[in-house]
Each structure stands twice: as C-alpha cells, then as structure tokens.
Write the structure tokens for this entry.
Amino acid sequence: MSAFIELEGVTKGFPVGGGVYPALRGIDLAVERGEFVAVTGPSGHGKSTLMSIIGVLDRPTGGRYRLEGVEVAGLSEDAMARLRSRTIGFVFQGFHLVPTLTALENVELPMVYARVPPAERRRRAQALLEWAGIGEHARQRPVQMSGGEQQRVAICRALALDPPLILADEPTGNLDSHSGRVVLDQLAGLNAEGRTVVLVTHDPTVAARARREVHIFDGRVEWDRRRPDAPSAAGGAGGG
Ligand SMILES: Nc1ncnc2c1ncn2[C@@H]1O[C@H](COP(=O)(O)OP(=O)(O)OP(=O)(O)O)[C@@H](O)[C@H]1O
Ligand SMILES: [Mg+2]
C-alpha cells in the first residue's frame, strides 16, 4: 500500500524570462497518516512550492505525486479541487480570511461551497469556534480580532469539512510568541487526534514540536529526521 503523501522525483519549474527556474529539483518524500512533519529550510529554497504541490494547488512539472494513492498528474482542475476540499485544510501565514465576513461566516464558507445545509453549517462553525476558544468572537470581522484570534478562525475554517490532512505554511510567522504557542498547541492537538499535519516554519522551537523535520535546500530534501522520542506514525487513525 502506498503512503498517504508520496512524492517521487518531483520537480517544479517556473517560466522566467526565456527559461525555466527549477524551484524543486527532485523531491522524494513519503508521509504516513498521522504524522506531524515540520518543513524547514532557507528562504527561497522551495518550501512553499512544495506545499502547493502537496496541497494539490499546483501540479509537478516532473516526477510523480500521489495523495491517498491518487496520481495528481492525471486529474482535471475540477478533480483536483474535489480532492483538495475533501482531503486538505489549509492554514497560511497571513490568515487569508475574507475581511467582509464575520468569523462565523468565514468558517462556514467551505461548507457553503460543499452545499452543507445552512443550519448545519452554522452549528458546526459555531462549535469549531467554541473548540478554538473564540466562540465569543463569532460575530466579529477579522479586522476586529487579534492576529492570534484570526489564525484560530483560519484553523476552524481549515477544519470545516473535517479533512484528514492539515497543511500550514508559516502559521505562526505573523504572531507574537504567546499567540504562536496557542496556534501550535491547536495544530499539535489536531495531530494527536489522528490528523496528519505538515507545517512550514523558520522557527526552531516550532519545528521541535513536530515528530519529524524535513529540511529543504536548493529544491531538494537535504535531510529528513525523526525525533528519537517520536512515537511511530503507524496506527494513525487518519481523519478526525
Ligand atoms: N510563480 C512563480 N514564478 C516564478 N518563480 C517562482 C514562483 N513561485 C516561486 N518561485 C521561485 O521559486 C523559488 C522557491 O520559492 P518558494 O516560495 O517555494 O520558497 P520558500 O522556501 O517558501 O521561501 P520563504 O521561506 O521565503 O517563504 C524562489 O526562488 C521563488 O522566487
Ligand atoms: Mg514560503
């Protein structure tokens, strides 16, 4: 059986000027269900590019990528979107909330697209906000909330459709250390309940919370280390 996330010799080139810039130069990576992986490496070396491949936002230019055993190269844009919405919740450094919507409406949004009935999606969104400790902010818009609160709303939105995989690109990058810890605790908690978490970070203390660190350098995996105290990923329950 193949791994949950499986990249073999993945390359990604971006057209620049007359040529192609090789942002990923042959990535081999397998992540099992239930793992908690930190992706580290210097700026501009391909971490976000890798996340957009893993997140099925973009296709590799070469090599193979399978998510849940599905080969992404062969999928139409629609099929990619369906795979994304059922499998992946995204969390970004800049929160990416819709500024005109309340916290509750932001969390409801993926469920609107997935045609979840209004009463049910409102109930679920409110329950997620309560879980995140920000139930009292449900009617506020992003501008009325702190960065840490906005990121917790974004995590709730990522969880709206109950995806087995959470991808987070610098989720604590714009937060003070206390808010960063709260957000990281939530991501670690989601992993503890069986979700697979892959996060990009520049912060060694954030990386240290993950069970495995994959270091990207120059578009390749330079090293890939499991923490000695890490419980094995085997038996990860998958989706929450
Ligand atoms: N759409 C694009 N078109 C052209 N070049 C791109 C594009 N996206 C990324 N790149 C280039 O690919 C390289 C890797 O970018 P990427 O965003 O993956 O780096 P990163 O490791 O996430 O950096 P950071 O830590 O600063 O976020 C960079 O040199 C970047 O300029
Ligand atoms: Mg990046």
